[in-house]
Amino acid sequence: MTVNSTAGCTAGNYVCENNLWTNTTCYDGKWYVPPQCNIPGEVNPNTTHCQEVLMADPTFDSGYTEGVIKNNGLNMTGAYLGVTRHNAMVREFAAKKKHFVFYWFGPDPLLSLVPSRRFYFDEDTPECESQRSGDPTLNTAKCDFPSITLLKRTRTDALAASEDFSHFFNTFSLTRAQIDALMLLHTTGGGTSNVYDISCNWIKDNFDTWKGMVQNTPPAAAVAAPSSTLSNPGVLAAVIIIPVLIVLGVCAVVFWFICSRRLKVKNAPQTAPLALI
């Protein structure tokens, strides 16, 4: 893989020439050649006895793949092509139905697009991990890559603020088969869609899959007072007494009005001309 695309494939313009490793040197700045493929008297990289592994960048899991090749005695060399050229050659070889080996990581649209089988090595253990090194020569591990679980991440305050969002975050999950199917729809996986359209269509077409992941809690009702106001004796007395006083006041006014009218009639003139206005 060249450092500067403008300079092209010239000496001094390859990643492996930049002292990436202290005890290992890339052959011609382009290949990793393990001891079992470095046969005296034969041209390197040896293509007679060793299979070329298409690789993108020596800094990807630096020393891991190279160490597994070396320590398991695999007759393979690593050819660093750069990401763009690597993916193009993988697709080209797959379309031509060639038998070839390549290194990549997943989940990724490239693996969804290209039918391939993974190499498996001895199970990863803490002891084996302790033998790993970023320099292929110093790496003595023979075991497989450690298993890495894809993580979901979000803000803790967002989870605390919404029970519904917390429920969705904790229950949302996709299988590997579902992820691969979505990646095949993307342009980088051979499809014709972008991320937005793929996501939108998935939501429309997979209601039964995600309906259990979504909950909508109704807004909380108005909070009632700790105790009814009528349970307060003072308030209860006021509620009863005030209406009684109003009624009594109205009765008093009416009674006074009637009495005053009667008083006027009682003191009215007794002889003609009688007048009662």
Which terms summarize this structure?
277 residues, 10 helices, 4 strands, mainly alpha, 4-stranded mixed sheet
Describe this entry's structure for a reader.
With 277 residues, this protein is mainly α. Helices cover 38% and strands 5% of the residues. The protein is built from ten helices and four strands. It has helices at residues 64-71, 83-95, 109-113, 126-129, 156-161, 163-171, 176-185, 195-205, 207-210, 233-266, and strands at residues 31-32, 51-55, 76-80, 101-102. It has a four-stranded mixed beta sheet with strand order 1-3-2-4. Residues 234-277 have low confidence and may be disordered.
Please sum up the structure shown:
The protein is 38% helix and 5% strand. It has helices spanning 64-71, 83-95, 109-113, 126-129, 156-161, 163-171, 176-185, 195-205, 207-210, 233-266; strands at residues 31-32, 51-55, 76-80, 101-102.
N- and C-termini, Cα separation? 122 Å
Low-confidence stretches: 234-277
- Largest beta-sheet details: 4 strands, mixed
Provide the β-strand percentage band.
Answer: 5-15%
Assign an overall shape.
Answer: elongated
Judged by helices, strands and strand pairing, the structural class is mainly alpha
How many helices does DSSP assign?
Answer: 10
Order of helices and strands: EEHEHEHHHHHHHH
- Rg estimate, integer Å: 43 Å
* Secondary structure: helix percent: 25-40%
**Overall average pLDDT:** 77
- Strand arrangement, major sheet: 1-3-2-4
Number of strands: 4
